[in-house]
Amino acid sequence: MRYVYDFDDPEGAGRELLGGKGSGLAEMTQLGVPVPAGFTISTDACRAYLAHGRRLPDGLEEEIAEHVARLEEKTGKRFGDTSDPLLVSVRSGAAVSMPGMMDTILNLGLNDEAVEGLARSTGNERFAFDSYRRLIQMYGEVVDGIDGHRFEQRLTDLKQAKHVQHDTDLDADDLRGLAGVFKSIYREETGRDFPQGARDQLTRAVQAVFGSWDNPRAQVYRRAHRIPDDIGTAVNVVQMVFGNKGDTSGTGVCFTRDPSTGEQGYYGEFLANAQGEDVVAGIRTPRPLVEMREALPEAFDQLVETMATLERHYRDMQDIEFTVEDGTLYLLQTRGAKRTAAAALKAAVSMTEEGLITRDEAVARIDAASLDQLLHPMIDPHAKLDVAAKGLNASPGAASGGIVFDADTAEARGRDGDPVILVRWETTPDDIHGMIAAQGILTVHGGMTSHAAVVARGMGKPCVAGAEGVSIDQAAKTATIGGRTLGEGDVITLDGGTGRVYLGPVELVPPQINEDFETVLTWADDFRRLKVRANADTPDDAAKAREFGAEGIGLCRTEHMFFGEERLPVVQEMIMADDEAGRRAALERLLPFQQGDFEGIFEAMAGLPVTIRLLDPPLHEFLPPLEQARDEKMRQRIRALQEANPMLGTRGCRLGVMYPEIYEMQVRAIVRAAIAVSERTGEAPLVEIMHPLVGFEEELRRLRELTVATIEAEGEIEYLCGTMIELPRACVRADEIAQHADFFSFGTNDLTQTALGFSRDDAEGKFLTYYLEHDVLDRNPFETIDRGGVGDLMRMAVERGRGVKDGLKIGICGEHGGEAQSVAFCHELGLDYVSCSPYRVPLARLAAAQAALAESGAAQYVAAGG
Ligand code: ADP
Ligand code: MG
Ligand code: MG
Hints:
The protein is of the alpha/beta class.
């Protein structure tokens, strides 16, 4: 078995085996982009290592030795040499991007003698010892688990003693001394001397990087991003290039387009005389990339050209790491850039216009779930608000919450359901659990490529980074923002789209769809087969739904029409009535209200179908709690209607069967509304009457008879009469039920509850959370359709229903209709439409198009990463 692949090996085996970073380095090498030489140890080796009690698989060490020899040949330097040593980095890199979650060690191959050799051969003693102290720290942290603060504290002490601010202000002697201090920390912590053998360093570094796959923060990150636990990481061994050689050297990070907005330009940051993580770690404030044009013009021009080359090659926006050594540019990483939904849309539209990608690729590559970010309420751009502080607009969206100063508190408060804003000088990968729990993130240091910014964009969370006007007293747990000192729990609001910070909560306004969004959705509409409707109960919702492109209403619930000051007493009167005559008298007074509501909705949806569901909830929902009953009679009625499990009780069509006068009134209101609207507007509404919770053919047979008779008694309208399919029995007996139905609409919330035997409220609060955390289930079946169980029932219902009625119209009106993977499933089942909340209509339009494209085998976008 082969484990190791050189970057220039044309048989390089793809990202699964080489990881994103490794395959990127190989592709760049083969494209002719300047990349230092090196090789990748595959994820196979990692999996073998982890599976066999953390032992390197047989033959791997020999194979590594062969590739080190090849590297020596290519570079003309020897690994372990003491006069002019070959140094390497050992870098993690999984198939899926997990920025900063695993480990990397730089400058491997140095020891006490080699560092002197490096000083002599480069004539740069400062650089040699700067590299050595970095190695000792990184190696100590990664291989031996020494707390990094121990090293950092000594660096800080030294800077203080020398009265300097930056590490660059330290001279060769300082760094020589620091390396000595670091070695003694290493000895104290491990009881051993810092290892002097280069090969020994390498073997242990490879093992440590494999092991870092299972470190706690990587596990948390994988869970949050649904990355499987068993794919493992590759290890990349790369010849070192040095950005810490002086002022004509440096290191940086850049994006081929702005990761927040998708605009073209030079987005990135650069730090002179620095190495590796210095840019992202906020050690010194990095310079905007454009400033590199003056400092290092040749390297800058080459970088700009390389950015274009990489974007053309990958046909996607890239996130790039580079280093300049003595004016010469080297690329160290490229990956598909994490981007906000807005940036994804802008980049997809402009790349299509530039001819880089086709429309179907543009549609296929937008993460449908991420559109949610754009469909959240935002801060009113016209509101006059006092800005308390300003930072970089690192990740858009608005969020309010109580401030917290550490990740553990964020997690604890988040678990209690409090919205929190995590406020930090700068986040590190160890803060990941707090970032997941927080509504938004505010940092004082750090730029657009800082850890906080990158991770927040990946999560679609608002982030304001580098708000230098904010100061934090970590010990006192206070922050000073805009001249005011705030304590833990005090509320602030972030606008990650503008970088503004406000004190207190801020009023939000509904989102709007911008031009790029509209463009992509219009393209999507050309590809999709599923229709998309909305669930809407009011004319306002209906109007909003139309604005978002809904092609009708798939679920208009009628129960809310029973509430309201003037109505509820009448409804209660109906429930309290002793006989049918009493109920009818009350219903007669409700009818005009319902009719008015339906007229409003029909008008808002002119020309598009409206599915109205007759009364669904149990009647006791309309009565007050027992303690608030107005008299003994009401108390009795409440007791009589009480049910041990209302979800499975007297509700849905069972009400219609027992009290036909209720549904009769609703149907009459619908017909009268339809006739009134036709007369008023000249356009007849497309009416679909839907009966909930049908389980037996006989239920629907009776209700259909009632519906038809009621309509005929009122006049003439075009209509369909159908049923929800939301009980397992209805799926099984769909052939019988279909004989009385003009359409089916899946109610997958109730269907999930009844098929799985889960009551949603009890499940989500309790055992389901446990199941998800402990991998009994990998998805919440109320969010994504449980294909295996619920999905099979749906398939059965489709087949049996259409088996007796060719082309029976079938849709879905549960929340699942607005979730991307469930929409894809509905497409596969051959449904006619999905219906979801108005705000999710755009997402459903896109997801439906993506499902159709996937089916037709059109280009599937695989998110790049590194
Ligand atoms: P991460 O996945 O956390 O970005 P990397 O393996 O990419 O970790 O490395 C960390 C930092 O060190 C990056 O800034 C990278 O560019 C830099 N680096 C890695 N290898 C080398 C090398 N051979 N020469 C110079 N810099 C390197
Ligand atoms: Mg990197
Ligand atoms: Mg239901």
